[in-house]
Amino acid sequence: MKFVKKIELGDPSSNFQNFIDLKLKLLCCRYWLLNLWDCHDMIFPFWRIYWNRNEGGELIHLDEVYKMTPDTLYIIPPFTSFSSRFSKKHIYNNGIHVEGRHLTSEFDENDYIDSSLIHFFIHFNLGVPFDNVYPGILKIEVTDFLKDRLEYLTGRLKIENKDFKLTFNLKLQAFIKETLTNIGPELWKAINIDDRVLKVIRFIEANIEKKLSNAEIATIVNMAPNSFARLFKKEMNISLHNFIQNRKIARSCELFEHTNKTIEDVAFDLGFSDRYHFSRVFKLITGLTPGIYKSGKYT
């Protein structure tokens, strides 16, 4: 007779299993008619999935133009610098200019195929360390499973755009995870980073509201500041200082999305000396002022 080894888990096996803790956090999911999508040099601290039902949308990254098609999903990792446009109504060559409206059940998409961009998008985070992968724009083929999910999600968004039921949330998460499984392994180098760097990343996340110095952080792993800074840059492909700034701005975006805190409150909560310092760093990283981001006038 075999006895249950881990009684509290009901697990009869003695074999240890190591699972990756993926902390998927949904930020927004919308279905829009876009008449203007001239957005330039955007950088955001969250993942994006874009899909257009019709052609005409374009993404630009490092001078490469991606002409968006309905049979392709486009994944944009955090802190990727990119621009977008609707080629049929391209007006502005700089700045953020968006004009559109939420698609509801009163609209028939077929009536707007030639005049507007029918645009579905999701913003989300995966948690540390998976929000610190290499930047770029990734193209994923729309499989039958993903197509079925897209039809369900866009159909529901035309009916309900705010208070989502459990079924919608589960299918949305399944859609994101299925999409991510199509990404090549080279993107996920973050799961193999040095344990010392991972320990520091977790410390930064837990103390993001503090002013953290390189010397203080290096003591956590018993290394000299310069030696650890070199290790961190090698492992994460970003300097320690820039990483901390990115994580602070990422947290500020979450606070703007999910609280009613003012810009001054967020700046104070994240250890910035004042609103003006925070605003300079925010715009340097995202390309937008905190006020514009907080207003939600972008996609």
CATH-assigned fold name of the largest domain: Jelly Rolls
Question: What fraction of the residues are assigned to beta strands by DSSP?
Answer: 15-25%
Uncertain residue ranges: none
Given helix and strand content, the structural type is: alpha+beta
Q: Which range best describes the helical content: under 10%, 10-25%, 25-40%, 40-55%, 55-70% or over 70%?
A: 25-40%
CATH class category label of the largest domain: Mainly Beta
Gap from first CA to last CA:
60 Å
Number of helical elements:
9
Taken from the alpha-carbon principal axes, the silhouette is globular
How would you characterize the largest beta sheet?
A: 9 strands, antiparallel
So, CATH architecture of the largest domain?
Sandwich
Q: Tell me the series of helices and strands, N- to C-terminal.
A: EEEEEEEEEHHHHHHHHH
Mean pLDDT rating: 87
The multimeric state of the shown protein is single chain
CATH superfamily of the largest domain: Regulatory protein AraC
Q: Give Rg in angstroms.
A: 21 Å
Write a short abstract of this structure:
With 299 residues, this protein is of the alpha+beta class. The chain has helices at residues 144-159, 166-180, 195-206, 214-220, 225-236, 240-258, 263-269, 275-286, 290-295; strands at residues 25-42, 47-52, 57-61, 64-67, 72-76, 82-86, 96-102, 117-125, 138-141. Strands 1, 2, 3, 4, 5, 6, 7, 8 and 9 form a 9-stranded antiparallel β-sheet that branches.
